[in-house]
Amino acid sequence: RKCTKILECPIKTLGILYSLTFINFIITMNPSYNHVLIFGMRCCNGVCAESLRKSKNEDFQKAFIPNIKMYLYQNQLNLSEWNRLSHFNNPFGFMEYNYTDIKSAVDLIQKPNITQLLPLPANESCIRCAVVANGGILNGSKMGKEIDSHTYVFRMNGAVIEGHEEDVGNRTSVYVHTSFSLIASLIAYRKYGFKNVPNDEGIKFVMIPEGLRDFIFLKDLLNRKAGPDRDFKKKKRAWAYYGGQFDESRFYVLHPDFLRYIRNRFMTSKQQNGTYWAMYRPTNGAFTLFLALHVCDIVDAYGFITENHKSFSNYYYENKKTEVVFFINHDYNLEIKLWKKLHDDKLIRLYQREGGQT
Predict the structure, then answer these.
(1) 20 to 30 Å CA-CA from 71: which of 77, 110, 185, 251?
(2) Domain harbouring 145, CATH code
(3) pLDDT tens digits, residue range 92-114?
(4) Any domain includes 92
């Protein structure tokens, strides 16, 4: 029979709940179940007088969980956790996935040696971070020196630096990606000079586990052995994409709870109520910005979409004016409003400017 009461349909022989799919998924449980999360260590030392954690903004304080579990790693995934997370579609959970396949990948991820992604440097009281997206608003901005002056610099996707240092700087402390964005960016943006992902000494890589291919990629990356399920078009090994800087001790995978928490508490979209609800997720840039909000005291955002995005190219490294492309799996209008609100509430400083590109 078709299972409609999710929590009453276990496969007892395996100890794994009835396999939920996008087709048979019916929300019959208490809606609050979607907000069940696990917690980790608190970030930051609390001595920064300007820290966003000390904001008096009621909406932010109500939504923000400073000790949310942020990273996924070995020995976390057991049957109980699997049954909880299998209620949520990717990247917010493991709906339609196979327990053995996912667990075998997760158990290869090393537990971080330190609880804090970005340590506070000596003689500094605040962790100041620049999060640099790839929006055309940065073309001609001359923000490079300002960006590089931060304690840490985050970048994501096709972060073209060579030839654009004056506008976007040249430092990268944290590079955020999915397996698809990592590989596709190196192909699609090579013509703009993106020949390698940022590979600064000591750089930290953070993966967003967007889909099943990310866990296949993880097995190749962390096993250092060719698996029978490799589905990449080229024979290049996973670690070779990191420009010689890959180190398991500096590699992090974001936890599905953290990604779902961002969506549920900050980025709920009307798209979740439509036919294609399972497709919606925040952009990689959005996930990166919220990662920074949880590991930094002060966050400045550059290259993010703004209300006047039509005045600029899609990307800062495009010499000719192009239109910003809105993909169906993201809610760009929501992000435009959210970045402006966070800026107005003094939780971030969003780079904005008038004018445009010719």
Answers:
(1) 185
(2) 3.90.1480.20
(3) 999 999 999 999 999 999 998 77
(4) yes
